Amino acid sequence: MKRKCGLRRVVFFLAICAGVFSACLCVLLMAGEYQLAQYNFDIHNRELQGWEACRQTKPAYFKANEEAVRSCLKSFDEARDNFWVRLPKAQMAGLFILAGLGGATGGYLLTWSVVWFGCLGIYRFFRWLVLCFRGKPVIRNGLDSHKWATKMEMQRHLSGKSDLKIKSISEPPA
User: What's the pLDDT at 19?
Assistant: First the structure.
């Protein structure tokens, strides 16, 4: 009994560690996506500001590079329309919280399911090994000797009693 309790404690501890790790991983992945989107937006915004300054100071150079300006505007529009850039701060905080909770729950449940399926697999493997080495069950008179009810039937056959009489409690003693 103490082994089961000890195993449960160890698995519980591992499940909590896995939950915390997966929650942190989910939040860090989302934060990385957010930072990358903000970085791209800032880069394209600065490039656009540079072209705007060029348009005001050197209009001839600006006219000569209209293709580059259109490309810059297209990149800026794509960066501005990114999901992470458009997301308000409150919704972003809510998404981070949901990602943390979902990651923690997923890591915890995944650890328990891996342990449960692992124990089930080990049990099935040892059961298969025992059946392989034990061989086929002994069959006498068409009865399987490994089943309890069959064993009772075999004892009845071997003892010579053809019918098993069951006494009921309601019968008066004779």
Answer: 92
Structure confidence at residue 55 (pLDDT) = 83
Distance between CA atoms of residues 63 and 46, nearest Å? 19
pTM of the model: 0.61
Tokens 């860090």 label which residue? 28
What residue has token string 């794509």?
Answer: 78
Instruction: Characterize 2-38 residue by residue with b for buried, 16 or more Cβ atoms within 10 angstroms of its Cβ, and e for exposed.
Output: eeeeeeeeebeebbeebbeebbeebbeebeeebeebe
pLDDT for residue 113: 92
DSSP letter for 171, please. Answer: S
- Selection from 45, 41, 48 nearest residue 87 by Cα: 41
